[in-house]
């Protein structure tokens, strides 16, 4: 029981610290509210990228497998919403920069990683929503979903690390490291590459 | 990020190369035509507002945008050329009219305009410059600062006559 409370407290702290650190960024003073909102939608998206593998891998104590899956679905939809807010907010702030990014002709390489991660994330979410209708064998479906989710994760990580923005560097690096660790551990735990039953 | 900078090493290398080429007779018209025009950079024209007024400085100042303007081919300095400058600064977003201003090159083809401190926006601390006056081909530059703490940023134009 105590261990369970400690795990959840650590998780909440891990998710809040990067957000709080970003809230102290000096750059915020020189940004309009819509730009600040767009930036924080991206940061919250990164936090959701940590929750997703933890829920998919059923690492969190006190959550039944069914509850884990339900929260994985809710966090996935929240991730889609945060990406949409991120992109629309940036588009309102500076339309030509976002149009360049979406057309893959941006001056900044991290835009390409971000937009690729966005489409991979949308596709992973679509596979989740349409799972019944896709009528794929479960393990084939899972491999596809996990592959797209991995592309989302990797693209977002590179995107975030290359950006000089409101995220504080130490907390950003730590969060990205944890996202990578959680994702790799979950892929390994579920053995997603095993499409055939042993 | 093709930033054109003439340092001593490049200057000497170019000079030695030219002499060697001259002596060995391999010089071609392409080499003889010399300095290539600066191409526009990706994203250089983003949030451009044509016709920024010539100003003493943009806003409260404290940061210097500097550079040179030369003619393609012979590299002659171009005086009196209008360079438009804008950036995300401590005083405004790129799109804001108050973030835009222009200046003219001096007799040596050099320009220097004081403006507010540039701060990182859209992931990089960067500025925008435009030559868009008609006599030469239009060029948009988007130089990136090596550190967000820099107090100055340089951009160099080599213009192609129309």
UniProtKB/TrEMBL annotation, chain A:
Q: Which Pfam families match?
A: Ferric_reduct (PF01794)
Q: How does it sit in the membrane?
A: Multi-pass membrane protein
Q: Write the record's keywords in alphabetical order, separated by commas.
A: Membrane, Transmembrane, Transmembrane helix
Positions of the Ferric oxidoreductase domain: 41-154
Record flagged with keyword Transmembrane helix: yes
> InterPro entries this protein is in?
Fe3_Rdtase_TM_dom
Q: Which positions, given as ranges, span the membrane?
A: 33-55, 75-93, 113-131, 143-163
Give its localization: Membrane
What cellular component GO annotations does this protein have?
Answer: membrane
Q: Which domain of life is it from?
A: Bacteria
Main localization of the protein described in the UniProt heading: membrane
Q: What is this protein called?
A: Ferric reductase like protein
Q: Which organism was this protein described from? A: Ruegeria conchae
Automatic annotation (TrEMBL), chain B:
Q: What Gene Ontology terms describe what this protein does at the molecular function level?
A: iron ion binding; oxidoreductase activity, acting on single donors with incorporation of molecular oxygen, incorporation of two atoms of oxygen
Which domain of life does the protein's organism represent? Bacteria
Residue ranges of coiled coil = none
Protein name in the entry: Twin-arginine translocation pathway signal
Q: Which organism is it from?
A: Ruegeria conchae
